[in-house]
Amino acid sequence: MKLHPACAHLQPLLGKWRGEGSGDYPGIEPFTYSEEVTFGHVGKPFLSYSQRTRGADGLPLHAECGYWRPVPGVSEVERGVEVLIIQPSGIFELLTGALTLTHFGFVSTLSALKVIGAPTARRVDATERRVSVDGDVLRCEVSMAATGHPMSAHVEATLLRFA
For residue 45, is pLDDT > 90? Predict the structure, then answer.
C-alpha cells in the first residue's frame, strides 16, 4: 500500500524500532528500560504509532499508542505535525509542533496543547517530546510537568530500526 502523499515527510518514522532508555523524575529513583516502537500506515493521511517498554527485570513498565497527523508547514523544510497519544494509565496527550527536515531525516519538537487525565489517572499538567530520526536511529526525549512538579526531563531513549 502506498504512503499517503501528505505523510511523505513522516516516512523516515515508518518501521519497527528497538533500543534502550533511561528515566528520572523528582520523587522517583532513576531507572533503565528497553523500548519497542512501531510506526505504520494504511494509505490514509496519518501514521499509526505504538510503544511498549520493559524494565531491567523484563516486566512491562509503560505503553502508549496513537497517531501522527501531518499539517501544512511554513516551508518545504519545516512541516507541521499533530500527535495524539493515549496511555492505559488514563492519560491522553494532544501535541503539536514543527518537524524540520534535515539531510539525515528530521527533528521534531512537540508541545502538548492539552493533557487530559481520567479521574483515576496521575496528574500530568503538560508534556513535551523531542523526536529525531537519523537514518536508522530514532531518538526520543519526553519531559513533563506532573504531580505538582515543574517541567522536567523524564525519559530518553535511542532506538534502532529492525524492520
Answer: yes
Question: Is the pLDDT at 73 greater than 90, yes or no?
Answer: no
Q: What is the DSSP letter of 2?
A: P
| Radius of gyration of the chain from its Cα atoms, rounded to whole angstroms | 16
pTM of the predicted model, to two decimals?
0.94
Question: What is the Cα–Cα distance from 47 to 159, expressed in whole angstroms?
Answer: 18
CATH superfamily to which 5-161 belongs? Calycin beta-barrel core domain (2.40.128.20)
- What is the reported pLDDT for 105? 87
d(CA 102, CA 110): 17
- Show me where the domains of the chain are located: 5-161
Q: Which set of grid coordinates corresponds to residue 73?
A: 508547514
Annotate 84-93 with b (16+ C-beta within 10 A) or e (fewer). Answer: ebebeeebbb
Q: Label residues 120-144 b or e (16+ Cβ within 10 Å = b).
A: eeeebebbbbebbbeeeebbbbbbb
Sign of CA pseudo-dihedral 79, 101, 21, 40: positive
What are the backbone dihedrals phi and psi of residue 103, each rounded to the nearest 5 degrees, phi first? -70, -15
Q: What is the rounded CA–CA span in Å between residue 42 and residue 46? A: 8
Confidence of residue 33 (pLDDT cuts 50, 70, 90): very high
